[in-house]
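// run 5 | inverse folding | seed 20
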């Protein structure tokens, strides 16, 4: 008899978690620079890059890279529309 009473007492003291859990109230969708279609993304980047250099800029760049090697600050002095950081992306 005592076993039955002690079991009933333990069941009444037990905390039963809810069966269905609620979703969290706060949700963060951090894709952290996720690129869904990488091929399309890089095609667009290449088109933007090619469009960023005029034909005369490409020819001046080729001549000056042969003369100044990797001194991009000196090369940028001959191409006023470009900064030394732009010269690191060598046009085709």
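// decoded
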């Amino acid at each position: 008899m005592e076993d039955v009473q002690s079991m009933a007492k333990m069941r009444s003291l037990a905390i039963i978690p809810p069966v269905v859990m609620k979703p969290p109230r706060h949700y963060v969708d951090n894709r952290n620079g996720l690129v869904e279609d990488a091929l399309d993304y890089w095609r667009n980047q290449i088109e933007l890059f090619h469009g960023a250099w005029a034909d005369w800029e490409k020819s001046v760049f080729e001549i000056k890279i042969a003369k100044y090697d990797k001194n991009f600050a000196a090369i940028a002095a001959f191409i006023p529309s470009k900064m030394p950081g732009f010269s690191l992306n060598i046009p085709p």
